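Field: COMPLEX_INPUT
Field: COMPONENT_COUNT = two
Field: RESIDUE_TOTAL = 298
Field: MODE = joint
Values follow.
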Amino acid sequence: MKTKVDFPSINQKEPDGRKPDGTPVRVLVVDDSMFVTKQIGQILTSEGFEVVATAGDGEQGVEKYKELFPNVDLVTMDITMPKMDGVTALEKIMEFDKNAKVVMISALGKQDLVKQSLLLGAKNYIVKPLDRTKVLERVVSSLE
Amino acid sequence: MRVEYINPFVEAAYNVLTEVLATEVKRGNLFLKSATKPVMGVAAIVGLAGEVEGRVLFDMSKATAMKIASVMNSEELTEIDDLVKATISELANMITAQAVTKLHELGFKFDLTPPALITGENMEISDQEVEALIVPMESPHGNIEINVAVRERS
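Field: COMPLEX_OUTPUT
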């Protein structure tokens, strides 16, 4: 059955995670929680993004960013992590690439650190618990 | 222990559980427990230190932990593996962060430890110095007891 003919697509919207040339937006997820990493990954890949790498602490996050650069378009960065926190990692990434697009992932009650991150160059922030709409909205706006 | 310490945890647990489980959650009756109390099987513990000190325990059975983690991950999880542990730790993190924000607004200053997850059979928790207040939260996936033992630093 030629489904494309019989059932015209009613969802004309392009997935949020594609660039104008159709290739996926490449994301580095930095978070010490396997659960959060998986959750962000599921939400983003369902919209066509590609998670190119994950890191479990800030130090690893900075290393991975340098390794991947310039083949990485976006970073999601947890704030509270072992070894190196997300704010320090953000600072190091911004030093290395002043055009880096970093979205902070924060627990509630970290307003001061979120403010500090935005001043250091983070494009946006998301407060946990995460949900699909919230994540996509903030991530997409940070890419504009 | 002053009840005003436990209310932010109960409110936060209610808010976070309702949101992540997308279901009705009921608050059971608060009760007080003396020195030693059994732990149900999976317990996330978060320490508080500062003007207020003590610990908060999120206690549930293994079956409940697996059901809650399954809902939060949108997949069927049938053993207490790393993903279930990470999920329950994150749940404890989210509830504690919300409660602590409230307590900070009320003027209490203290820091938190990252959650530690304890699993096993026939466990007990003893609080010799501080009495514990417990509020059971009832969800269709099972009950979670919020067990708070904190005091003001003397």
